[in-house]
Amino acid sequence: MTRFLVGTRKGLFRVEKQSHGQWAIVESWFLGEPVPMVLAQKQGEDILACLDLGHFGNKMRRTRDGGATWKEETVPSYPEQPEGQKEIDPVRGLEVPWSVKLLWSLAASPDGTLWCGTIPGGLFRSEDDGATWSLVESLWHDERRKKWSGGGYDFAGIHSILIHPENPQQITVGVSVGGVWQSQDGGASWEVIGEGLRAEYMPPEMAHDLEAQDPHVIVSCAAAPEQLWMQHHNGIFRSHDWGRTWTEFHDVKPAVFGFAVAVHPKDPDTAWFVPAVKDEQRIPAEARPVVTRTQDGGKSFSILSQGLPEPPAYDLVFRHALDINGDGSILAFGSTTGSLWISEDQGESWQVVSEHLPPIYCVRADQ
Amino acid sequence: MVRISFTPNLLRHVQTPADAVEGDSIGAALEAYFQLNPTARSYVLDDQGKVRKHIAIFLNRDMIPASQALATAVRAQDELYVAQALSGG
């Protein structure tokens, strides 16, 4: 049975299908606290939840009994900043803090290694199931990282972490205005990749600079993991080769702008997006929230709206707030205005679960 | 001994009973407290050991600017209060 976890600005919620067919919120935790990211394993019995406590910093909580009890876990932490080693953000001129501002992404390797991406752009690894974390220093100290500039937040951050399912030594990360980075040696060294990506917001001669790209999120097809989809700041892109090269899809109605993407776990040609008008107007086109879907690898896209609200509706969907379950039968997404929808027919129709949740940061199916 | 107490708002997250500790600065007194209660550290100090942006520290009812707090000298019988600064919405 699929369940979804919904991390919001004011707590973490669990959503389940009821016997009469309606999906409903069945549990809540950390009410009042922002929950930017969760990682659910073992059919949702093992949940690692990230909390952004504001005054008191970012924390991690872990349950191994499906949420009955939670325990405080060690949080990724930057090492002591060497005296005089000051780093200035290239856009805002602010000093980049060696301090976690947001725990933004989580991933688990098949070998049990846990990964956490943060703002600012540090990648952390845990080899002991979250008991301790260490900064991946090779990436943090890479001189090229200093070109990362970030987008909606003050500093760049790592929002996507993709681990090769058969070769955990290959790690691919997506960075908010920092591009796509890949390691083939377990994080010892890194290459910036992404031929074919295009940054419309840069001066034309710099539009293809790899470090200037702004992937909003990158997802991989479970059955064909080299097949990636990306919702980029100014477009929709697909890669057939683990992110080395990308193809852009221009003719996608109502818009190519958005944050979220999900790919079918068994069919790399099928992917869903939740568009907004454009960078400068982050609302649904014509105030009508829709989902766009391709089922032919990007040759064509359908607009899906059955069950989604009529205009005027101003739901925006953040990058981690759309997900699909492990067998590809159920999709869920949530919005900044606290609406949550679920589809059991590949997005053709949507059932509203709630329109009154806090702003939704992440939606994750139990794994 | 310097007496340290904390905002009750922390109790939702971590136990921070008031205590009396040794130390000749606010930083040293906090460090002594965190030796006894290591979980509390990351709620008050950031990764670099600085006072978190939205934490306010009072020394005998005077608020000490966060950037100066840790180096501020304290004496026996002083009282420290770790507060949640008003911020956000």
Which helices and strands, and how do they pair?
The complex is a heterodimer of chains A (367) and B (89).
Chain A: E1 4-8, E2 11-17, E3 23-29, E4 37-41, E5 46-52, E6 58-63, E7 71-73, E8 102-108, E9 114-119, E10 123-126, E11 134-135, H1 137-140, E12 158-163, E13 171-175, E14 179-183, E15 191-193, E16 215-220, E17 228-232, E18 235-239, E19 247-249, E20 257-263, E21 271-276, E22 291-294, E23 302-304, E24 322-324, E25 331-334, E26 340-343, E27 351-354, E28 360-365
Antiparallel strand pairs in A: 1-2, 1-28, 2-3, 4-5, 5-6, 6-7, 8-9, 9-10, 10-11, 12-13, 13-14, 14-15, 16-17, 17-18, 18-19, 20-21, 21-22, 22-23, 24-25, 25-26, 26-27
Chain B: E1 2-6, E2 19-21, H1 26-36, H2 41-44, E3 55-59, E4 62-64, H3 66-69, E5 79-84
Parallel strand pairs in B: 1-5
Antiparallel strand pairs in B: 1-2, 3-4, 3-5
General description of the model:
The complex is a heterodimer of chains A (367) and B (89). With 367 residues, chain A is an all-beta fold. Chain A has a domain at 74-80 and 88-211. In chain A, 1% of the residues lie in helices and 38% in strands. The longest helix of chain A is centred in the middle third of the chain and has 4 residues, at 137-140. Chain A starts with a strand and ends with a strand. In chain A, 50% of the residues are buried. The mean pLDDT of chain A is 96. Chain B is α+β, with helices and mostly antiparallel strands and 89 residues long. Chain B has one domain: Beta-grasp domain (Ubiquitin-like (UB roll), Roll), CATH 3.10.20.30. Chain B has three helices and five strands, in the order ββααββαβ. Chain B has helices spanning 26-36, 41-44, 66-69, and strands at residues 2-6, 19-21, 55-59, 62-64, 79-84. In chain B, strands 2-1-5-3-4 form a five-stranded mixed beta sheet. In chain B, strand 3 and strand 4 (62-64) form a beta hairpin. Chain B starts with a strand and ends in a 5-residue tail after the last strand. The A-B interface holds A 53-57, 59, 72, 75, 77-78, 80-81, 97-100 and B 9-10, 13-14, 39, 42-44, 46-50, 52, 54-55, 84-85, 87-88.
